[in-house]
Amino acid sequence: MSSVLSHKKDQEHVRTSLSDSCPASSAASSRSLRHERLLRLGSSGSPDVSNDTSTNHAESYFLQRENRLSAKKRAEEEKMNSDYKKMYEKAVATNQRLKSRLETSKQELSEIQDRLQRTQNGKPDDGSNMLEAEKKESWSLKKKISDMEEQLKVKADLKMENQRLKDENGALIRVITKLSK
């Protein structure tokens, strides 16, 4: 009983000292209140029962906090693993794409080397037919170009002739006008 009375006196003393303190230290006072409550729970009644409940309360609080932190950590790890998995899948897809491009390039290279070998050895192949067609086309284009150049020369000559005739016509008109006056 005497422990209960001394406990009530301590509570009044703590309350008055807390009410006297400034409002800026409210966070510190709330911490001290929690601390006081835990001490109260530990000192009141039977020490075994209250100690067990305060221990259980503290343990449950810390267990819940630990569970939350571990769940958060697991979620972050899963997210990172997911990111690594996505990056890995992307890298694998890129590698496959590059391998296929490499294979097609190798095939094209071997075909070109075969054609080169055939042309160097004088063996005609499909490429030689194309070369002949290109040569014929080139020759016909060159012929057309030379014909056009000749036409341009003729056109230039005709323009000069036309200008000369205009000048002569103008001179004749002047002479006729002088004679008619």
From TrEMBL:
Residue span, cGMP-dependent protein kinase interacting domain: 83-181
UniProt xrefs under Gene3D superfamilies: 6.10.250.1820
Signal peptide: none
Keyword Flavoprotein listed: no
Entries under InterPro entries matching the protein: PP1_Regulatory_Subunit, PRKG1_interact
Low complexity composition-biased segments: 17-31
Protein name: Protein phosphatase 1, regulatory subunit 12B
Keyword vocabulary terms for this entry: ANK repeat, Developmental protein, Repeat
Segments passing through the bilayer: none
Species: Iconisemion striatum
Species lineage: Eukaryota, Metazoa, Chordata, Craniata, Vertebrata
